[in-house]
Amino acid sequence: MILEAIITTTNSDGSVNVSPMGPFVENDPADGFELRPFETSRTFANLQQRPFGVLHVTDDAMLFAKAAIGKLTETPKVRSAEHNDAAFVLEDACRWYEFEAVYFETSEPRKSIRCKVVSAGRQRDFWGFNRAKHAVLEAAILATRVDFLPIEEILRQYESLRVIVDKTGSPVEDGAMEMLEQFVK
């Protein structure tokens, strides 16, 4: 299964990189998982330099949206991870899984990185996703594909997602959807 998550890695200057990513998880992320970043991604470059990071389970739809389109103007609050103090845990995530990248398969355009969890924790309950949060998450994923999906297809899907956000969302989801719509247009 693919679990939509936020990954933090460490940039070459020591700052935090925050990226949405859908790792492949068999049953429980604590058992390990596989990341599939593109070769051009900052996450891939960072993990090649420093093979550690943190996978976060969160219900923050705005964070997914901003991270997907490069609109994080401020790094969310973080603290050093337990195993490697140069890895960062998002303070507002529900759960986190600190990992070490133990195997890189780089022969395909979409890279594969096998990750071993070295520590994990729970910070708060998962509040949950309503339909609007799901719609924002789908819209954020579509926004990352503007370079290789027809824009007409993305805009058509955005029309359907907008209806869901209008019916079931809060001002946070509405703002996230508006930001993603502006980015795609």
UniProtKB/TrEMBL annotation:
SUPFAM superfamilies: FMN-binding split barrel. Residues 4-120, 130-182 form the DUF447 domain. Pfam families: DUF447_C, DUF447_N. This is Uncharacterized protein. The lineage of its organism: Bacteria, Pseudomonadati, Planctomycetota, Planctomycetia, Pirellulales.
